[in-house]
Design a protein that fits this description.
With 630 residues, the chain is α/β, with parallel strands linked by helices. The protein contains 21 helices and 19 strands.
Length: 630
């Protein structure tokens, strides 16, 4: 019996007749938002599905997703449409009514797109990628999809270790996507316009010539008997090994969403987000983003003001967030915050800084930005002792923190949030006691200044070693030890009524650690876990570590091999296929300095540390000086 062909009309009727009475938050699925782009059907259009492997309210909060949407839709020869995963109630209803996954703009089935691009923001979304393909009636494995299927691509921070998803994704975009997305569409268009026979291999071969493109099927990985990697082997002679990341150098010329979509429902970050600079040179040794987004590139104040004006005019939002890894490090941050606040405070638009240093300057900035409405302040000491601060190269003192808290309380704040991390290399119980001491001292300062009105929120997370960081070689602390430390901290904060605290699920931390440094042999584990029902792993109500353990056991994969094993300097790592720009020798020297408790200065305030990007940094600085003098 032939299966019914589902049309756009079928999906529209399904939404109209079934949605309101059967699902929570129907606004997730209907589209028709303000600034949505819906293009008329044309066979010549290259149709791109921007697939976010999570719910609507999560995906609609990510800036990169919005940037790509506007870049593609500004082209006359391409159309971008959004795809999100349905919540459980909607998934049940869709399966009951035999409705596959569809886009919000044209209610297009995934099989009807030319390209499907996934945004990989973290390692715990991998079964969601498979879930998206499955709900869209697409084969999971790249080898099972020929040229009649959409090209499946993926990018984002997790693409810097693409290996766990290597068997499912046709190609990965490594690095910044602003320029390369257009080049991918150009190559696809040329391939599609060929009159002679055209194969998927031909398309991938053409795409492999673009900088920043990694095609897993063009490489073979050879393993030693002990499970470590023996070598990488190119299957195609002309491809790069390693693949260099793509860098958008001039952010002032980079495309930015002047018409961001205003969502139908409240989302996680429901505001205008302005990326004021990209990269970071502070050198925290645990921080992957600080490495993979180098070199540091600022947008000018003039560009930021224009972005704010256009975005506010075209949306009606009442908040502007100045986003970066450390927003107060922008060279013109005072001018930017002053100008934006003065321009928009009279119409009720607030300006926020989500990432602040621990110093009095940050409090001054917060005071500038929170004239419209005052929220809590968040700081990240990360560790509890000066020794551990040296280990992770945080370069923040306890005195800085206490002074910053006192300054904030004087300015009227009553809510403070602190972030810490445990399980870092060389950590001792004395370092754990240091975290507890800091929390208690901050609470005492708060109670002295504000009494019962003061509240302190503390978030303590597990350290997870990440690829392309100085700690990529170290072992993760075992789950039992982490649980003991969390219990120890909780016991000593038990009677503190002004303090609320949260700890992570240690089983979830173990899983994240596996995939953060995993290889392509984990593909079978991801598939089997998905078939057992694993998806939405970051949501506590869905996460089931027992099913993951079954998947690991079925494939004879030892979790300890990826989590609790220290790597040697000469070991070939799965992500060595990818060149993030920062060389391995620099990362190793930083790892050694960590063990010796030696810090490294921020290279903006010191001589160049020769991390591998010095030529790009130098040319970028010269270009900026030339602009300023012209």
């Amino acid at each position: 019996m032939n299966k019914k062909v589902i049309t756009k009309t079928d999906i529209q009727e399904f939404l109209k007749s079934k949605l309101l009475e059967n699902v929570e938050k129907p606004g997730r699925y209907i589209g028709k938002e303000y600034n949505e782009v819906v293009k008329e059907e044309q066979n010549s259009l290259i149709k791109v599905a921007l697939a976010f492997p999570d719910l609507y309210e999560i995906g609609m909060s990510y800036l990169g997703y919005k940037i790509l949407y506007e870049i593609i839709n500004k082209r006359v020869d391409a159309a971008a449409e959004r795809v999100f995963l349905p919540a459980k109630d909607m998934e049940i209803l869709m399966k009951k009514e035999d409705i596959p996954l569809f886009s919000l703009e044209n209610y297009r089935l995934l099989t009807d797109f030319n390209i499907i691009g996934f945004s990989l923001q973290h390692e715990l979304c991998y079964t969601n990628v498979l879930h998206t393909l499955n709900l869209g009636n697409l084969p999971l494995y790249s080898a099972d999809r020929d040229e009649s299927f959409p090209l499946i691509i993926a990018g984002g921070p997790s693409a810097f270790n693409p290996e766990p998803l290597a068997d499912f994704i046709d190609l990965f975009v490594i690095g910044d996507g602003e320029d390369v997305i257009g080049e991918i569409i150009d190559v696809y268009q040329q391939w599609a316009n060929k009159t002679k026979s055209k194969t998927k291999y031909d398309l991938l071969l053409s795409l492999s010539k673009l900088k920043g493109i990694y095609i897993p099927s063009f490489y073979k990985v050879n393993y030693k008997e002990d499970g470590t990697i023996d070598s990488f082997q190119k299957k195609v002679a002309e491809i790069d090994l390693p693949v260099k990341k793509r860098i958008t150098l001039d952010l002032n010329k980079a495309p930015y969403p002047d018409f961001p979509i205003v969502p139908n429902i409240d989302v996680v970050h429901n505001r205008i987000t302005l990326e004021i600079f990209r990269g970071c040179t502070r050198g925290c040794r645990f921080c992957q983003a600080g490495i993979i987004y180098r070199p540091i590139r600022e947008r000018s104040a003039k560009t930021i003001f224009a972005m704010a004006e256009n975005s506010l005019k075209n949306t009606g939002y009442d908040e502007v967030s100045l986003s970066s890894l450390s927003s107060s490090d922008h060279s013109c941050i005072s001018q930017i915050t002053d100008t934006l606040v003065n321009c928009y405070k009279d119409i009720g638009v607030a300006v926020s800084l989500p990432s602040l240093r621990i110093d009095s300057f940050s409090v001054q900035l917060a005071r500038q930005t929170q004239q419209v409405r005052k929220t809590g302040l968040t700081f990240a000491p990360e560790v509890g002792t000066k020794r551990m601060s040296n280990v992770i190269n945080k370069n923040v003192s306890e005195d800085d923190l206490y002074q910053t808290v006192q300054d904030a309380l004087k300015e009227g704040w009553q809510r403070i949030k602190l972030y810490f991390m445990i399980g870092l290399p060389t950590e001792t119980w004395n370092d754990i006691d240091g975290i507890i001491d800091i929390i208690k001292k901050v609470e005492a300062i708060g109670k002295q200044k504000k009494g019962k009105r003061f509240t302190l929120s503390v978030s303590i997370n597990s350290f997870i070693p990440k690829a392309h960081t100085p700690f990529q070689w170290v072992t993760q602390e075992n789950e039992k030890s982490l649980q003991e430390k969390f219990a120890y901290i909780a016991d000593r904060l038990r009677n503190k009524k002004n303090i609320s605290y949260s700890f992570p699920d240690t089983e979830l931390s173990v899983l994240e650690s596996v995939f953060a440094r995993g290889d392509r042999r984990l593909g079978l584990v991801i598939e089997d876990a998905y078939m057992l029902g694993c998806k939405f792993d970051t949501w506590r109500e869905f996460f089931d570590f027992n099913k993951w353990e079954q998947a690991f056991q079925k494939n004879n994969i030892m979790v300890d091999f990826y989590t609790y094993r220290e790597r040697g300097k000469e070991e070939i790592l799965p992500w060595d296929l990818i060149d993030c720009g920062v060389n391995k020798s620099f990362l190793w020297s930083e790892c050694e300095k960590a063990s010796q408790e030696i810090t490294t200065d921020d290279c903006r305030n010191a001589s160049c540390h020769n991390c591998g990007l010095q030529e790009i940094c130098s040319s970028f600085k010269k270009a900026n000086i030339k602009k300023e003098l012209s």
